[in-house]
Design the sequence.
């Protein structure tokens, strides 16, 4: 490998297809990622243990995963950052047009709109949205088509022999 600064390295394994928008993916296929039908909204609570102890306790010391068992496609992911701050990603199965209808430059309006989607959920979860210390950030989820494949090439570049498709929960539903 030759890096941008001119240094080189030799390795037996190189992992570079790191997501739908990987710089390696176009070397393997001309298929471009498409919106997968859901997005997350990223939020943070600073000093959660002191300012939001109930929410911090619900998140725990690692990760919290909440799945709505109805067909709503709502998923709530939260974890602790290395500094202990709770970091959340509520996922909603909504169109890009739905998210475009939210003014993400207005944090108060955004948190109010996203909180409506989890109305009735436990307050320690909804606080990850309503009490966020940062402006919510829209994170759309992109995937390659479910049936996408590329031909196996014997020998040569092992990366070309792998099937690759970024996935997300619920992607198998075709949504």
Sequence:
């Amino acid at each position: 490998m030759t890096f941008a600064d001119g240094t080189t390295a030799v390795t037996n394994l190189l992992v570079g297809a790191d997501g739908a928008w990987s710089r390696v993916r176009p070397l393997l296929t001309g298929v471009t990622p498409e919106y997968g039908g859901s997005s997350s909204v990223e939020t943070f609570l600073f000093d959660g243990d002191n300012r939001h102890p109930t929410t911090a306790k619900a998140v725990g010391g690692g990760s919290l995963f909440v799945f709505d068992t109805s067909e709503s496609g709502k998923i709530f992911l939260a974890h602790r950052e290395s500094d202990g701050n709770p970091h959340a990603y509520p996922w909603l199965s909504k169109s890009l047009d739905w998210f475009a209808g939210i003014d993400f430059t207005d944090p108060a309006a955004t948190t109010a709109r996203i909180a409506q989607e989890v109305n009735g959920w436990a307050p320690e979860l909804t606080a990850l949205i309503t009490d966020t210390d940062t402006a919510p950030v829209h994170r759309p989820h992109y995937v390659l088509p479910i049936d996408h494949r590329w031909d196996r090439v014997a020998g040569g570049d092992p990366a070309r022999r792998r099937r690759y498709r970024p996935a997300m929960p619920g992607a198998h539903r075709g949504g």
User: Anything to note?
Assistant: The helical segments are 25-28, 48-51, 53-59, 96-100, 107-116, 123-130.
